[in-house]
Amino acid sequence: MIIRIETESDIPIYTQLTNQIIEGIARGEIVPGDSLPSVRSFAADLGVNMHTVNKSYHELEKKGIINIVPKSGAIIAPTNKMTEEKKQQIVTELKPVVAEALVLGMSQEEVQGLVSSILEDIKMS
Amino acid sequence: MSFLIFFIITLFIAVIQTVIPYLVNRAVVFGVMIPVQFIEDETIKKYRKRYTICVGLLSIVILGIYLGWVFSQERLDNQIALVGVVIEFALILISLSFYLYYHGKTKQLKQQNRWAENLKPMKVTDLSVRKQDEMLPWYAYVLPILSTIGLLIYTLMNYDLLPDPIPTHWGPSGEADAFTAKTPFSAMQLTLLLFTMQFMFLGIHIATKKSGIKLSATALEASRNRQLSLRKYSSWFLYIVLLGITMLMSFLQLMTIHPEIGDGSVKIIIPFGFLLLVLVGTLIFAVKVGRSDKEVGSTVKAQIMDLDEDQYWKGGMFYFNKNDPSIFVEKRFGVGWTLNLANPLGLLIIIVPLIIIILIAFL
Predict the structure, then answer these.
(1) Chain B partners of A8 at a C-beta cutoff of 8 Å?
(2) What's the number of CA atoms in the CB half-sphere (13 Å) around residue B115?
(3) Distance between CA B283 and CA B336 in Å, rounded?
(4) What is the pLDDT of residues B240-266, one digit of tens each?
(5) What is the CATH number of domain A13-76?
(6) What is the least distance, in Å, from the CA of B107 to any CA of chain A?
């Protein structure tokens, strides 16, 4: 899968990496059991600092999306059952975004439409 | 003989220097990154053409003068060699000056036209690109290293057969022309030298493999082709050259122990064959890699460009980027690799073996 980083974006590079890897899994471009490149080669290929990649991998590990196995590297974790705790985490992250959309003038239907179209975009490809 | 060797090498340098602008990475013009959208610019084409015409014409003139000088009257071999070396340096200096001139002009052109503005800089990589890498495995180097160990043991077993003094240098005709007193160390000198070179080449190989595979956001397929070709062919070329060096030096060592194997034309043919191998290998390598990104067409739709890394390239020649963990990166003007000078590991791989080689040679 292709990773594209916008270097002048306000979003830090490690967050862009994390987001794109998650999206790649959601789209099925990488599947559980696939391994991600080593921190060193990933950083070298992108020409970024190793800390940046490291930070992103640790973030993914904390979210339970990858397992970091010593010697074999970072492996995409199998999809587990949704726990109450994980659900709570998504709600905490999504709520402010939805609230912001409403404050900025989107209607309830528009927000729902937006989520559906994002879902469709991810699942279609 | 020595004229022929110098003429071929000089001709070779001249040809390569002349065509470089057409072999380098498509997105880099005279060491300056140009967004792909503007790569077909007429002024850029004019600069490339002018460089090639100027360097090409001057090379022909210089080679003609060398030819005339050699055949105008009887010349000594070492005179021919000395002038040959001076001419090779002159050619490199000339092409370097033209390069620097057009490097400045291209930089100016890019600024004046504001080519880098209004385009969103991007970095890109493919998670599966490492799986497509076709570099030789490191253990290919075990073979020549084992053969050197064998040679070392054989030398020590036949220590009594070695002449006193021991030859340490051979002229272009294959005759030894420098000697040193026979000691156990001087007997092993050549094999130790070979040993150090083999480990240096192995170090370069591993460092290259660990270095980044840099893809372009605006020419994904072309850049992938070029990076993978560069890695594959440079690893083969490095290995073949090392095999050549191993055979050449093993031959010299065996000839010292058993002078009869150097009888006849063998001692001229082997070094000459090695030279030919290196020159032809370089040519094939340069053309293969140089063309690898020219055949794949690409159209850029979006207003994006590759991250402008000009700031890390001093004069478009020396790379200095602390954030890049790569030890080697692709050269900007030329075909091949250059060191990331901000990475101390790279300096270690090159400098330590060089120091050891110098120490062995002068001890």
Answers:
(1) 120-121
(2) 23
(3) 12
(4) 999 999 999 999 999 999 988 878 788
(5) 1.10.10.10
(6) 22
Do B359 and B249 reside in the same domain of the chain? yes
B119 in contact with chain A, both atoms CB, cutoff 8 A: no
Chain A closest-CA separation from residue B328 CA (Å): 10
Q: What is the mean pLDDT of chain B?
A: 90
Task: Record the pTM.
Answer: 0.90
Do B334 and B350 contact (CB within 8 A), yes or no?
A: no
Tokens of B204: 């370069």
Between residues B193 and B171, which one has the greater pLDDT? B193
- The answer to whether A3 faces chain B, any CB pair under 8 Å, is yes
Q: Are B226 and B286 in contact (CB under 8 A)?
A: no
- Please tell me the predicted confidence (pLDDT) of residue A125: 60
Measured from the Cβ of residue B286, the count of other Cβ atoms closer than 10 Å reads: 20
CA distance B320 to chain A (A): 12
Pairwise CB contact (< 8 Å): A40 & B210: yes
- Quickly count: other Cβ atoms within 10 Å of residue B359's Cβ: 11
Domain count, chain B: 2
Structure tokens at A19: 């987001």
Residues 303-362 of B with CB under 8 A from A: 307, 309, 321, 323-326
Q: Please name every residue paired with A76 in a beta bridge, in sequence order, or none if there are none.
A: A66
What mean pLDDT comes out for the span B214-242?
Answer: 93
CA–CA separation, B153 and B148 (whole Å):
9
Encode pLDDT of B70-113 as tens digits: 888 888 888 888 899 999 999 999 999 999 999 999 999 999 99
Are residues B317 and B214 part of one domain?
yes
The percent of residues in chain B predicted with pLDDT above 90, rounded, is: 61
Does B290 lie in the same domain as B164? yes
